[in-house]
Amino acid sequence: MNNAELENGSAGVVTKQFFTFAEPPNTFTLESGASLSPVTLAYETWGQLSKNRDNAILVAHAFSGDSHAAGFYPDDPADAKPGWWDSMIGPGKGLDTNKYFVICINILGGCMGSTGPSSINPETGQPYGLDFPMMTIGDIIETQKLLLEHLGISTLHGAIGGSVGGMQVLEWCVRYPDKIRSAIPVASTMRHSALAIAFNEVARQAIMVDPRWNRGNYYGSDGPDLGLAVARMIGHVTYLSDEAMRRKFGRRLQDKENFSYGFDVDFQVESYLRYQGTKFVERFDANSLLYITKASDYFDLVNRNGSGPSLMELTSAQTKFLVISYSSDWLYPTYQAKELVQSLKRASQDVSFCEIEADCGHDAFLIPDKRLGTLIGGFLDGVSRN
Amino acid sequence: MNNAELENGSAGVVTKQFFTFAEPPNTFTLESGASLSPVTLAYETWGQLSKNRDNAILVAHAFSGDSHAAGFYPDDPADAKPGWWDSMIGPGKGLDTNKYFVICINILGGCMGSTGPSSINPETGQPYGLDFPMMTIGDIIETQKLLLEHLGISTLHGAIGGSVGGMQVLEWCVRYPDKIRSAIPVASTMRHSALAIAFNEVARQAIMVDPRWNRGNYYGSDGPDLGLAVARMIGHVTYLSDEAMRRKFGRRLQDKENFSYGFDVDFQVESYLRYQGTKFVERFDANSLLYITKASDYFDLVNRNGSGPSLMELTSAQTKFLVISYSSDWLYPTYQAKELVQSLKRASQDVSFCEIEADCGHDAFLIPDKRLGTLIGGFLDGVSRN
User: Fold this and answer.
1) Which of A62, B113, B261, B368 is within CB 3.0–4.6 Å of B87 for a Cys-Cys bond?
2) Is residue A214 located within the same domain as residue A151?
3) Active site residue B325
4) Selected residue of B32, B201, B253, B332 to mutate for chain A interface (largest A Cβ count, 10 A)
5) How confident is residue A2, by pLDDT bands cut at 50, 70 and 90?
6) Which of B198, B208, B262 shows the shortest C-beta gap to A273?
7) Which one of B257, B292, B327 terminates a domain?
């Protein structure tokens, strides 16, 4: 890190930390009724927690994200990329670490340090696999709350997240409306649509038909890498937009002037998808994909199936909402953001809404864009003034 | 068939016929330079060919279709469904068999009677598998033309087709503009977009990573049924629309009141997709899917990569075009139909355009809808009058 980088708002060096709870004989009970013991959460923080412990902002990551939202690890090589939302987190950025204590927690069910299906089941000494209990977005929030309490944070200044992260933000608001002053769901939805469930189900099937998946029991041997790569390819198509793909790839051929007249890569878009699939396999656990996509599919703030309060019961809360959508996001389209806004207004909430014009689809929230930072910075300042 | 059905415009009983050409020592040369010998095409016809042999209309089927576009086979059970476009073909229907001789041909590379990768390679006595040469939409048209010539049809009154069928219609127009009086591409495009290529590539990968695919050499043993089912599920999501899925499935649960908290079917949309995948495996060959999707991906009437004339060279033709799109089709969206219309107009063609409002996505053209029949019937009558 040199001075130029610091002046440029670098989030700096960060260390992954761990918090373990529900240690035997205690257990953590999930929405399904199942229980886990113990539970570890990996997390990272940026900025300083204020004396009153009232400046914490939770960054909730999307399904394949992790706690490394910004900055670098101490042992990163010189050419390492910073965390996944480095453009948003740092001094003077949208989530200004001169003002806020930012925390990002790898979600329950993940595979980046938090307890998930690849963790050791203490009852067997082997990885859980499918013995890991199904968890919900609500369960993720309950674990996050325990970690925040451990850090002495009883109230969040705000929570922000894109995609599945946005669902976590909203779940926070309906479960603990008095413990969250502001909420910024980005490129998200108040209930998973049939289309989104459909894509998740196809991705799951791609993994589950891979014989190496072996009903989730593949740890220590070759895993379902091929199925997982196909699942990621499906995901990647849904994260982009028709326009972005036209602009980025069009019908350009890969390293050749003529068609191969075979099943090798002809088009750049094919090469891109295969690369994304292969790269993902190196860093993500197939069972985690199954569990986290299922948790998103279950997410529904309107019909709660008996699990927690609904959005309509939010009448007493004082949370300020900023709902953000992207014009070319067809996974969680703007009309779904507007449905959320209308539901929040019917529940007498203080809600602002912004659709950002961008042609890059659902993934737009991950792409550095000053507009998002400015919007969020201004909104959070307004919350602070109130 | 009873009288009520006949009065109701039934297409009646139809028999699948076969035409074989390029028998040794002759061969059929494909665009790639490879050759095939012999080539068989399966086809079905409805209505009577006029004395002048000038009332033929080619129905070009979509990628998983076949020659059985309407009516019933003689040995169909009482509860059999009619052909896939029975709503469009028959006395008094959009393609009025009192006026026109309608013909539908299973495409080269298919698996419903025409020569494809599951056919016997005479050189080995075994199914071709991946030894089948890669074919293009242009190759499909050349085989169709040979069959029509065999039937004594030198000029088509019209050609119509949805999706990949629409590509065939357009390819006919640029290859043989003087042999086709009218063309109706429906829910189609003049070049396959990056998004469409991406979905096809993911579907192909789903098949090719199935170990039972065995590099295409699976005939006589268990084939890549699981991979093929996943490929079909991907396809089905793209054939529907967000709106249609909301209306048809929403977040309704399948046969239960609560979540399973497992990886069995929870939502109706999951059950629907799994069913579509399984059903498809019973009737379709995985290698045919690979070849036909690749032929669609290669389709580009603008940049021809040296293969045949481009759309811009169409200046002398007299073909009348009716381009039809569906408002909720996101695989071949209306903007692509408009690009086609503009290109045709720049090439001084006689072109009409209609976007049909429908919420059911790309598959809308397969769903009985009087509007499509009326539109097409009126257009074809106009062509006849000229």
Assistant:
1) B368
2) no
3) no
4) B201
5) very low
6) B198
7) B292
Q: Directed axis angle between helix A268-283 and helix A225-239, to 10°?
A: 120
Q: Report ipTM for this prediction.
A: 0.93
Number of cross-chain residue pairs from A and B with Cβ atoms under 8 Å apart: 160
**Looking at A245, A266, A292, which one is the last position of a domain?**
A292
B173 and B116 in a single domain? The answer is yes
Domain with B205 in it:
198-292
Domain harbouring B12, CATH code: 3.40.50.1820
User: Tokens at residue A232, please?
Assistant: 């990621």
B233 contacts on A by Cβ (under 8 Å): 198, 201-202, 205
Q: Which residues contact B77 (CB under 8 A, 6 or more apart)?
A: none
pLDDT of amino acid A374: 95
Chain B residues with CB-CB distance to A298 below 8 A: 259, 266
pLDDT tens digits, one per residue of B248-303: 999 999 977 789 999 999 999 999 999 999 999 999 999 999 999 999 999 999 98
B151–chain A Cβ distance below 8 A for any pair? no
Tell me the three state secondary structure of residue A112: coil
Q: What beta strand segments (E) does chain A contain?
A: 17-21, 28-29, 35-36, 39-46, 56-60, 89-90, 95-96, 101-105, 120-121, 126-127, 158-162, 182-186, 320-326, 350-356
| pTM for the structure as a whole | 0.95
Q: Which of residues 44-83 of B touch A (CB under 8 A)?
A: none
Measured at the alpha carbon of residue A148, what is the angle toward residues A144 and A150, in degrees to the nearest 5? 115
Query: Cα-flanking dihedrals φ and ψ of residue B26, to 5°?
Result: -75, 160
d(CA A260, CA B33): 12
Share of chain B above pLDDT 70, in %: 97
pLDDT over 50 at B9, yes or no: yes
Q: Do both A202 and A185 map to the same domain? A: no
pLDDT in tens, A63-91: 999 999 999 999 999 999 999 999 999 99
Taking the CA of residue B109 and the nearest CA in chain A, the distance in Å comes to 14
Do A309 and A276 lie in one domain? The reply is: no
Question: B78 CA to chain A: closest CA distance, Å?
Answer: 34
Whether B327 is a known active-site residue: answer no
How much of chain A exceeds pLDDT 70, in percent? 98
- Does residue A7 register a pLDDT over 60? no
Kindly state whether residues A119 and A136 are assigned to the same domain: yes
**Residue in B237, B259, B297 nearest the CB of A199:** B237
Give the active site residues of A: 163, 329, 362
Give pLDDT tens digits for B106-121: 999 999 999 999 999 9
A3 has a pLDDT exceeding 50: no
Residues B113 and B25 in one domain: yes
Lowest mean pLDDT among A13-17, B10-14, B70-74, B320-324: B10-14
Report residue B311's pLDDT band, with 50, 70 and 90 as the boundaries.
Answer: confident
Q: Cβ contacts of residue B381 below 8 Å, gap of 6+?
A: none
Contacts of A202 in chain B (CB under 8 A): 230, 233-234, 237, 273
Distance CA B309, CA A149 (A): 70
What is the total count of domains within chain A? 2
Chain-chain contact of A32 with B261 (C-beta, under 8 angstroms): yes
- Which of B194, B209, B266 is opposite residue A230, by nearest beta carbon? B209
